[in-house]
Input
Amino acid sequence: MAIKEIVSYDDTPNDHDALMLGRVLAQAGAELTLAYVRHTTQSERRREELEEHEAEALLERGARALDGLEVERRVIVSGSTPEGLRWLAEQEDADIVVFGSDYRTPAGHVSPQHSSVRLLDGGPAAVAIAPAGYRSGEPHVHMVGLLASAGDDAALETARDLADALHGVVTRDERHVDLLVVGSRPEAPEGRVMVSAQYERSIEDSTAPVLVVARGVPLGFPALAAA
Output
């Protein structure tokens, strides 16, 4: 089955970085869903219809920015963005949730925003984070880095499959890579994402997109998916 990715999107600049990373993962064979979380509903029908229309228009703009990729769109209502995305990931049996970095992040660096931090602590799907400014280039993934504990087959298999899908290679040198695959802590429950303090620092030191894999759940990207 194809990898399912959800891109958290609200039309901010850093969420355009997430769009670009979502496109890269789609080139590796992932099916892409754009998701926007509304935090309230309106009691008056006309105002509710207007806000729903604005949310759908926002996602339509995001889909157009993906240059013809087939994109599903979902508007979720939740008082909490990470909880809304967690619910959607569980309902859709999604494999990855994609975020941009925090809005204060310098260009070329990764800094998890609030929603991604929440899903990095027990979330039900892998978490991908784009560096600030990622939208401004045309990313090419050749070197796939691997940062994982000994015996973390899920992270290793994910890195290998992703490299094969994008015609790249895997390296243990996480400093000079185009994408960094990070494993969860050994004590994390199977199927959940949890990162150690050491790996948190490595994520924030990264200048490449980061993909944190759930414990014991490799992501099987189809070989030779990219053109």
User: Anything to note?
Assistant: The CA atoms of residues 101 and 112 lie 5 Å apart. The mean pLDDT is 92. Helices lie at 13-27, 45-64, 81-92, 114-119, 153-165, 197-205. The radius of gyration is 17 Å.
